[in-house]
Amino acid sequence: MWTSLWVFLGIPVFCLQGSHKKVADKNNFWKAQLKNWTDTFGHEIFSFGNVVTKYAEMQDRFQKNSPDFSIRKVDLEQLVTDITNETHTLLQDRVQALKLLVDWAENKAREHFERKGTGDAPVQSSPDSYVNAKKIIKGMPGEPDPILPPIVSDDEDDDRPHKKEKDPSVRRVIFKADNWFGTEVNHNFSSVHVPTSIYDLREDILDGIAWTSNMDDVFKSNFNQNPTLLWQYYASSSGFMRQYPASKWPNDNSNKHNPDIYDCRTRPWYTAAANSPKNMVIIQDVSGSMTGLRREIAKHVIYTILDTLTDNDYVSVLNFTDTTSPVVPCFKDDLVQANLENVREFKVSLDQDRTAGMANFSEALLRAFSILERHRDHSLTGSANCNEAIMLITDGAPYYFDEIFSDLNNMNISEKRGRTRVFTYLVGREVTDTNEVLWMACKNKGFFVHVTTLGEVQEQVLKYLTVMSKPMVMSQTHNISWSRVYPDVVEIAESDWLWDEKIRKKQRERSQRYKLFLKKVVNETEGNQFFAPNTDEPPKKGKKGWSNTRISGLRVAEFLDYGMTNPTEDDLREILAKEERIEKTRGYLHSKLSSSGSVANQLPTLAHHNHYHHPRAEAITQKKLHEQQKAKEAKLKNDEATRERWGPDRKFQFMVSASMPVFDQRNQTTVTKFHFNESGFSIEESVKQQIAIFLGVVGTDVPIKEFQKIASPFKLGVNGYAFAITENGYIVFHPEWRPLTQDILKPNFNSVDLAEIELVDSDESRNIDKELMDMRRSMLFIAEGVVNSSLLQVRVPQDDFRRVRVRKQQYAYAKINKTQYTLGVTVPKANMYQFHAELEIRLDAQQKNVSTFFDKPNEPRKWRLHPDWTYCEYIRGGPQKKEDKLSKEDILIQFLQKIQLAKGSWPWRNIKYGNKNTYVPTPPSEIYSCDKLLVQSLVFDAKITGTFKLKELNQSESQVQQKFGAVVAFIATRSGLTRWIDYSEGPRSDTYIPFSDTNPRAIDELWYKRAVDRYEVDQGMSFVISVPYDAGTRNDSLVTATRAIFVRKRVPEINEFRSAPAAVTGTQFEHEKLAASFIEITQTILPECTDHSVCHPCNTEYIDCYILDDNGFVVVSDTHKYTGRFFGDVDGNVLNELVNQGIYERKRVVDYQAICHHLLSRPGMANMLLNPFVTFKWMLRWALGRLAWLALQINLHNFIHPDYASVLAEVSDEQPMKDTKEDISNWHPFLELAPINKTRLRPCHKEYVLYQYGPLYYSTLFTTGFYSGVMDECDSIGNDGDYAVHLINRTNLILLVVQGTCNGKGNKERVSIKPTEVTYELEEDLENMTVHNEVVAQICRIPILTLERKKPSTKCYDYDKREDGLREECGGSAALQSSITFVLLSIFLFFNHFQIRCS
């Protein structure tokens, strides 16, 4: 009995032991089998990489052939001190130049106005001639004079009186190419820009141009003293801008569809210098009378006011009728910072306004004063805490509202609450009752204007700037203003227009596809693809039009979207990949246009290699294709000329500007007053009156690249970088700052906060991490001369948010003295030691030329320099013609020869440029600047890597090289030098771009950074391997493998050995051969592997094999189409299991600079088919519009309400229906699918969930090399499946093998790394409004986050008691009609005078 019991109890124990043994055996089999595969595969890759990259030789040369090198710890505090001091010197040189300009301008203006006022001497009030930047005609280089006499305007559309005479502003100018300015200039004089909206021969414009004509002498003197100056300019309050040196304006209004809209008075450097910061409330009347033209004028008034604000200003915009409400609901009654993003949202909201009801002025004014009251003395957040202004836009006020102003804004009291200026804008031509709104402005130290047309809006609005500048003028204090970062002459408003252009281009392409669909759908063979299921007949066209019943709308939509019907996921992936490659290749051809001269023969090949069928291909004959490519070539050349100013790769030149105000030094002037004596005669009387006149602003530019040049990444090493922020916490420059999207400025490009770009390794909402906020506050409020430091663990997104790296970074930061900028530097904790080695450049005993370290006689050039770093550059001198343009490499060789041949010490920087009072157009000695440390380090690296060249390989090496089909090998060094060896000289695919053209940035390349990061894992004993993300859609992909070269030496300060990166070697080879080698290796099954569930080759149905990299991307798969894809996109279930076990880990990364496309709800043309009344409505609108236009032409608007005509004219903007003989029934099927939805760029936040190796990888896999597990219910019927992971030695890869049970169809979860928009919880009222309110749906998705900011360093000038004694100037009517009182008085005086004469 007991025996039986023991036997019974022992059965499950025996079974359990047998099960464990079976699992253990399976794991042992798998471990042995996978180890055999991975060891073989890893060894082959490692041997191949070492041979083709000459790794051992290069490692020895850096370690052993350079005994004088040193390893030093980065002294961040000393480094940031040196960089800020050098930057301070750079910026203060610009300030000194501005001070000279201000002194000259103010003295000259005083002399001019005093002589003009007294009449003691003749004064030139109009120039004999001047150079209008938009009317310049380029002279021929052989002409003797640099500037020729004025010529007659040849503008056929110019019907002004001066057309028949010589136009003093049209000049023929001879230009010379200047490398420093990046365009053709003339240094002998300045040129003048006059806004398009201003008549360039207006009396005050000519007067200002005349008295500033001799400013050229100061411009040139500054330029002689400091040749590193860029543009210098004087911007007048009247609108013109004088710029030195002279150059032709990029937009000369030759294209009437793209007029020049630049106005210097709306640029941030002008408005910052003209006014102290201000809190502003704009209240606009949207009552029932504000319709038509009045409404349009009111909107443009607000647009212009908003354009004059800076980041230091705070604003609110309110609508008022019988109630008062904020224009942007989520802004509420708060003042928001007037950055570009918020200003844009105000403008969008204004387009949604509707007029109705009566205007309640009392409530609006009380609301405005209440907002200003609540935001006083908030110096850190939400307030400018200086000037205050209320801007009232209306078509008339019923009362003076004296009780409100007397109570809340008594200008006679000394309290802050009595210093709000009120500016009133009366809109409407026929409005004559101006007394009330005029009184409001005069009573409250503001200004009144009457705006009657859209054309005068800008001139009238900008008058408020001169009024608000009065306290500053009276104090005679010249503050230095430093602007936010902005693009050169590009108008921000162009971004939305450019995006609309892209939408229109896409619409044209879609329309072409629709036309092709119409041809295919009636074809007996091709029409089947559009049929709905269970149909077999093509549609017929009968008397009543098309029969749509057999056509599938889904198939039509697919064809219009992708050019094919019923596309598979792989088809869509291939389409997107091909489009990306074509776009990349086009970009490469664009950059090569100047060197090759033509791309006409290259572009057509792109369509030929497009693997998917493009529907337009059938409709394009070879002749048409040739014509199209010719047109594209012409457009490319035109684009190249446009971008030539800043190089072929740059469309925008970002910069900051220093500016200073210019005042009229006279404190009083003589004015003539008229009064009537007892007899009624008019008597003149001259009286003295106090004045405070703002004349304009002088400024100069500092390109962001000048900051980056000083804070070069070479000084910080790989993965280190510098950045700068303003007193508002906004980024000035940062390597992760992305101001563009598809070559268009982002709406919020210059309001990116430090907290939105330094992403801390935490999941705090909005990245509001305490340590980060502490560092941000410290940077804002740091005192001059102090250096602080911080340590943060951050998440660094890489490769366009496909990869992520978590690292600890050490920060140091300091204030740039006497500016609003704080500069910071950071270096990863793992890279705190740097390799230092330089080679002094001189002729040695053998008279060896150091340039031979780079170029060998009769050998092609196989090296490049970092394109963004400055080694040596000509500031003056050097090549003077476009055809003489030298590459960065050519310029370096020139300087090396000069340095080596120099007698005595070589001056590394020569910027002294003659006497301040003389100007030498062609200096005898070139003006240049060289970075000594960088150049000497570069020469050292060139000498060490000089043996990196193609040599004959022995038989074994040749076999290894051919194993994977090496195409190119390369080495990049810390000094920015990149060398390469071409192993495959034969022609490749037409979309292939040479390695040297796509990877010239050395330590800034991703493969360089990843190789250095890998050193932390295995001390540099492996290659980092990656493949293109579209590798699965093509057969010609190249694999990139890189390995870092670290050198090791004892550091004397700590008496320990330390390592530092000196270079990275790498190779690109054929992926097809790599995959074939892997499949071949995995065909080998060990004899001892007897478990048939695991002992199978990879290319069978029993197991699936994947080689994955450190971020989860497929490098090799037995299914080729998976190559390059994120593994979660292939099998999310397995990926989740790997995450759960710790082999991978997730990292949430939020892109706070993202852009979303907001869909605008706007009906398309096809809607007319659904509702015949739409056609009637359009016809009625067109007819009424024509009648309104006729009424305007014959002046009938004098007898009817003029705004009614304006409404009708506005309505008629929609194009009328064209006459057609076809009945509506002949419209084609699914026409509603042909139009695309119009979108608008909208700032948003996007969340990425990215992956990197987890803790299990660094523990178990590194110790045992193997891990296995079981997937529960991994197929569609609930079966379990095994999987195993093995480390591939000497690489960053792992081998993943999944049992075939888990490859069942339809049960694989997809895990994507594609971004999703972050949604924030809104307040209940706003959440409800998002459904019906377009503005809320666009703007209020992201709650406003008010972060701490520093009050501007400049002194506040908001009020001066002496203003009471100023000449009364609070505005007047701009309309032609006079007031009734004045007319009656004139009639009375006329008849009174007539009676006296008669008697």
Automatic annotation (TrEMBL):
SMART domains assigned to the protein according to its UniProt record, in alphabetical order: VWA (SM00327)
Domain of life the protein comes from: Eukaryota
Comp. bias regions, Basic and acidic residues: 159-169
Major subcellular site: membrane
Signal sequence, start to end: 1-21
VWFA domain boundaries: 279-472
Keywords, in A-Z order: Calcium, Calcium channel, Calcium transport, Disulfide bond, Glycoprotein, Ion channel, Ion transport, Membrane, Metal-binding, Signal, Transmembrane, Transmembrane helix, Transport, Voltage-gated channel
Ranges where the record places region Disordered: 137-169
PROSITE patterns recorded: VWFA (PS50234)
InterPro entries to which the protein is assigned, alphabetical: Ca_channel_alpha-2/delta, VDCC_a2/dsu, VWA_N, VWF_A, vWFA_dom_sf
Subcellular localization(s) per the UniProt record: Membrane
Topology of this chain in the membrane: Single-pass type I membrane protein
Protein name stated in the entry: VWFA domain-containing protein
